[in-house]
Amino acid sequence: MPDVRLPELSLAGRVGLSYVEAPVNYLADLSVKPVTYNPPQGTGVPRREGNYQNFMVRVHNARPYVNDLSLDRQAFILTRHDTQVRDFYDEQELRTAYYKEVEELIKRETGAAKVVVFDHTVRTADRAVERGLRTPVRSVHNDYTEKSGPQRVRDLLPPDEAEVRLKKRFSEYNVWRNIDHEPIEATPLGFVDAQSIAPRDLAVCDLVYADRTGEIYQGVHNADHQWHYFPAMTREEAILIKCYDSEKDGRARFSLHSAFDDPTTPANARPRQSIEVRAFAFFD
Fold first, then answer.
1. What digits encode the pLDDT tens for the residues 72-124?
2. Could you report how far apart the first and last alpha carbons of the chain are, in Å?
3. CA–CA distance, 268 with 218 (Å, rounded to integer)
4. What does the CA dihedral 271, 174, 147, 156 come to, rounded to 10 degrees?
5. DSSP labels for 162-228?
6. Cβ atoms of 189 and 22 closer than 8 Å
7. Separation CA 258–CA 145 (nearest Å)
8. CA distance linking residue 162 with residue 152, whole number of Å
9. Residue among 43, 53, 64, 270 nearest 178 (CA)
């Protein structure tokens, strides 16, 4: 049975499973306005308001059909991406070396004329707060909304350039990877095929920080969502997630994703360590 815990299963065996069944945390409805309060990094965990509930979903192993995935259809892809970064916990190395690697990766995969990498988050399931890091996000969400996508461009670029860029197509991508030297065993990231997302499934959620308030989309439960993941990800792989696209021609514009507990995770699994880098891609 795919939803039975199989701690003795090898990594190769786990990759071969067609799917697992696992709970993911959705908004059940909009009876309570969703708001997330984010403390300064390393000082605590986010506090959420909203009618959140766990729902069992079937998460398909996407490795057998990885070459059929598209950023403009599913809104996520997996690709080979070698890195020269030695220490992903070194802020200076990330900004001087890894940001450039991510910029080139996004240009390669999207054909963008310009890419602006603007921030990153390192996450760990092990002692995150005391290490000044963040934990995996266990709610179905998308990082940008119809409003916050363009606003973030205005925040990042000089006013004249921003207005020119906003008149043409632009997208926001997250580049997510395992930063451990061993394959991911616990708390993988799952993705909803954007073709199965209805407009009503995206609920605006205020994201409150000490110095500002932004907004993201939280996912509202829809039994039609089609979930996928890439088990046993290695350090040489990267996932591109499209979180915003200004083009309204029928292509995927938003995505939904969440960390989840894989029921095949070994009892002594290594805690997940990952990084996500955010960037805008501008097209001529």
1. 999 999 999 999 999 999 999 999 999 999 999 999 999 999 999 999 999 98
2. 50
3. 32
4. 110
5. HHHHHTS-EEEEEEEEE-SSS---SS-EEEE-GGG--GGGEEEEEEE-SS-EEEEEEEBP-TT--EE
6. no
7. 16
8. 10
9. 270
Task: Answer for the pair 147, 262: CB distance below 8 angstroms, yes or no.
Answer: no
What is the total residue count of the chain? 284
What is the model's pTM? 0.90
Residue type, 195: Q
Q: What is the per-residue DSSP string for 48-112?
A: EES-EEEEEEEEEE-GGGGGG--TTTTSEEEEE-----S-TT-HHHIIIIIHHHHHHHHHHHH--
Cα Rg of the chain, angstroms: 18
Which residues 6+ apart lie within 8 Å of 197 measured at CB? 222, 225, 254, 255, 256
User: Two tokens at 169?
Assistant: 């197509």
